[in-house]
Amino acid sequence: MVASVRVILGIIGCAVCMLLYSAPILTFKRVIKEASVGEFSCIPYILALFSCLTYSWYGFPVVSSGWTNLTVFLISSTGVLFEISFISIYLWFAPREKKKLVILILSLVLAIFGMTILISILIIHTHHVRKVFVGSVGVLSAMLMYSSPLVAVKQVVRTRSVEFMPFSLSLFTFLTSLIWMIYGLLGRDPYIMSPNCVGCATGILQLVVYCIYRRSKETPKTWNNMENDMEMVTSCKDVSGHKP
Fold it and tell me: CA-to-CA distance for 171 and 32, rounded, in angstroms?
């Protein structure tokens, strides 16, 4: 019974995550149309890629025992495809200096992920220790992404305008984190449950702040505003939270 409920929650969580993963598409359409990234930052997408890569490996049978975390593997792998697409578009239209920074950070993230794979395969030889190691790296990557909504909340409080934090994204952040937190709880998996507890807390905070400032007069949206919106979006993508 518990296993069946967990599978259903995993499917629902995947569906909600897909909505969040696809949220930046409109912004990147604008990047393509204007052939410029403006002041838009790519770092949140690189962190999201790191988290998706880590949890894809975490859900793989080499780390988890069998396909017990199949849904985590599937949605995280999908997230990897989305993030690679967004980062590739950014690199294509970014000026040279920004490209150098993105490539540097991206190389560092990929190097850390590569080391995680090598250590978990060549040095660690049991599923339990391997799961603890990879899960700990995953929790760290998820925590890095969960700092993004706090930036959006601070911006809303400072400007007294909720245009920096759309209600739908705040709601999906909370729902995604809640679903995956229960998923991890039912599976007694602290590496999925713990980061999503933080995600639930930040989701509730966003919803409360939105309710407080939703009647405030909005100012015209600028490219910087959109940057803040999208940084908030990427924090929702952890199937661990994302993302996972």
Answer: 28
